[in-house]
Amino acid sequence: MNDPISDFLTRIRNACAAQQEHVLIPFSKMKAELSRILHEEGYIWGYEVDTSATHPRLKLKLKYNDTKEKTPVIRNLTRVSKPGLRQYVGSDEVPRVLGGLGISILSTSRGIMTGAKARKAKVGGELLATVW
Length: 132
Hints:
alpha+beta; 25% helix; Ribosomal Protein S8, Chain: A, domain 1; 3-stranded antiparallel beta sheet
C-alpha cells in the first residue's frame, strides 16, 4: 500500500456503499486524527481503537440519515493531495467545499484540521481531502 490515506478514504467509501454499520481500518496516528475530524464534524457516529487483534486498528461507526433506506451522511470523499502530486494551499487559498456545506481537511504545521479552522488560524498546508 503506497498511500494509507487513500486506503482509509476508500474503505469508508466502500463501507458506506455497502451500508455497513462499522468499518475496520489499520491504525495510524494520521488516520486517528482524520477520524477525529470526521467525528467532530458529524460525518460518523464515533471511532475507537481496537487493540484486541495483533495489530491495532480503528473501528469507525458510520452515520446514516434514514434508518430504513440507510442513506449515508458521507456523500463523497475525495483525496486531493497524492504522493505523486502534493497539493499545498496558503491560508487565503483554502477551498470552500460546496459553498461551506462540506469540509476540506488540511495537514498544517499546527496539526490536522478542517479548512475553516485553518482559515481562522491563518495557516496553510497540504490539502489532504474533501468531504461532503
